[in-house]
TrEMBL record:
This is Uncharacterized protein. PANTHER family: DUF3431 DOMAIN CONTAINING PROTEIN, EXPRESSED PROTEIN. InterPro entries: DUF3431. Pfam families: DUF3431 (PF11913).
């Protein structure tokens, strides 16, 4: 009986010893620090999460953005379409006549020029790679589109070309502005008989005040209207911040009416180095319509002349589009508008 009892006891002890030895060998093969190995995936996830957060924070820095939109608006204008149709674009919507707006200006003067200058001053050190400066209205007579619609103009805009050119006008057609809109010296001499809604007769005097470093006022100044353009960070910074501050101070101080002071900048943005004005192009900057539509918007297979291309832009009979545009025309006739429909106006 004693022998029979000892035998199972020996088997149990042997089993425990073998199992313990097996476990020790297993842990030895997996490494001398098994718990660190088991926790490693958690450490990897934490590191990956931290790296992703750092990358997102870096991408959100304004200077790392590829593009920003600067919109010059007043309270009466509907800017909701920018959010509806360009949701991923970073938008800076200034409200010039609302001092309490998140983005506004020192004074509602100078039309879009005051907004553009304020952005350049405030963001000079944190500019994105490229900036598009535009007006607030989606449909406006000066938009270079068959329907006068700014949306396809923005959607079709080619950033690689802007990067290469430095400055690009959003209007290709020559009518109003090209090929010889202003003759500063000649127009100044006809000041008394000049049409007062244009800036031709005061351009020479304003040019000399704004750009005293340029010894000679250009003989001819020309660029397609109407102060909507793209420009790169490098081109903006080719002038010191102090210049833009001085331009804005001129706008704030000038006794000239808005109909004139803003138009001075309309024909000054494009050029800076002598004999030219702010963004480094020649004083006469009128690329062929064919090259412009192809380079700026990718519209390369349309019949063109130097000043226009078929089916792109026709100067409207009035500066205000008719009620119901783009669905109805000037005689209230139905139009075959194929773009996204604007949202219906809300009842007051």
């Amino acid at each position: 009986m004693v022998a029979s009892l000892r035998s199972p006891r020996r088997v149990l002890v042997a089993t425990i010893l073998v199992t313990s030895l097996f476990l020790l060998l297993t842990f030895h093969q997996r490494g001398t620090q098994p718990f660190a190995t088991l926790l490693q995936p958690e450490n990897d996830r934490a590191a990956a999460s931290a790296a992703a957060a750092a990358a997102a924070a870096a991408a959100e820095k304004p200077e790392n953005r590829e593009l920003e939109l600067v919109v010059a608006s007043v309270k009466a204008e509907d800017t909701a379409w920018f959010h509806t149709y360009l949701p991923s674009w970073h938008k800076n919507i200034y409200v010039a006549d609302e001092p309490a707006a998140p983005l506004t200006v020192p004074a509602n003067k100078g039309r879009e020029a005051m907004v553009y200058l304020t952005y350049m001053i405030d963001r000079y050190d944190t500019l994105p790679e490229t900036v598009l400066f535009v007006h607030a209205s989606r449909f406006a007579w000066h938009n270079d589109d068959p329907d006068y619609d700014a949306l396809p103009t923005l959607r079709n805009f080619r950033l690689p070309y802007l990067r290469a050119a430095g400055y690009v006008n959003l209007r290709c057609v020559w009518v109003i502005g090209c090929p010889r809109e202003i003759r500063p010296a000649q127009d100044a001499a006809q000041k008394d008989s000049a049409e007062k809604i244009q800036a031709k007769h005061i351009y020479k005097e304003a040019f000399e005040e704004l750009l005293p470093e340029i010894s000679e006022v250009p003989e001819i100044v020309a660029v397609s209207c109407c102060s909507q353009f793209g420009v790169t960070r490098e081109v903006i910074r080719s002038r010191p911040k102090a210049d833009y501050i001085r331009y804005r101070e001129w706008l704030l101080a000038t006794p000239l009416d808005d109909a004139l002071n803003g138009r001075v900048f309309e024909f000054a943005w494009h050029t800076t180095s002598s004999p030219s004005v702010i963004f480094g192009k020649e004083a006469v900057h009128c690329p062929s319509a064919s090259a412009c539509y192809c380079n700026v918007f990718g519209l390369c297979d349309i019949p063109c002349k130097d000043d226009s291309c078929d089916g792109r832009y026709v100067l409207p009979p009035y500066s205000s589009l008719p009620q119901g545009w783009p669905l109805v025309g000037w005689a209230q006739e139905p139009r075959n508008f194929s773009g996204p429909l604007p949202a219906p106006a809300l009842d007051p």
